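SEQUENCE-TO-STRUCTURE ENTRY
===========================
Question of interest: how does this chain fold, as expressed in backbone structure tokens?
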Amino acid sequence: MRPGRYAAPDGSFARSAGGAGARGLALLALALIIGVVLLNATDEDPPGTTVSTNSSSSTDDDAATGDDAAAATTTTVPATTTLPAHAPKDVKAIVANASAVKGAANGGRNALLAAQYNVLAPANAAATGESSVYFTPGYDRDAAAIATVLQLPGTTVKPLPSPAPFDTKGANVVIVLGADAAPRFGTGAATTTTAAAAAGATTTTTAAATTTTKKP
């Protein structure tokens, strides 16, 4: 009997069948690998997706709480109240001579009396080169006005220190005339005018201090 049509006596059919089986297995393995890859790709989050966690949520809540707390905080600025100046007659003032210029305190007192201030008797204070106009609480504007009357700069106006530079007798405003301003109020600044009978002219004579004894 002759061999079948498709069965070669040299065994090539078996080899062909074996090769086809191997190729099938290879295709099956490749399909399996492609399936696994596609499955993994499907499980990943799509691009642009944001994943929320408890940590980030907690941070957002804390941030919101902090914003609310900041919004709820209110800073109150105290209003500044400036009291008007008193009438001169209601301001008790005292002038002290703190220089070697005779009669400076009395000259300053007379200037304040002319401005209708209630001025106490003049006094003496420790010598100083700079004048000061001190005020007690509530009389700062009055001190500024008195400084203007006495032609003293605004920098001389300041709160009354404790202890006071001398016995102020309870004055509201305390003026200390130092060497910088005392000459304008001392007796040496006073002038007298005498008529000359013959010529009809006037002669002005400046009075000079003849003693070193200091008077207020």
User: Anything to note?
Assistant: Strands lie at 92-97, 118-119, 123-124, 132-135, 157-159, 173-177, 191-195, 202-206. Residues 88-185 form a domain with the Alpha-Beta Plaits fold (CATH 3.30.70.2390). Residues 55-59, 191-213 have pLDDT under 50 and may be disordered. The chain has four helices and eight strands.
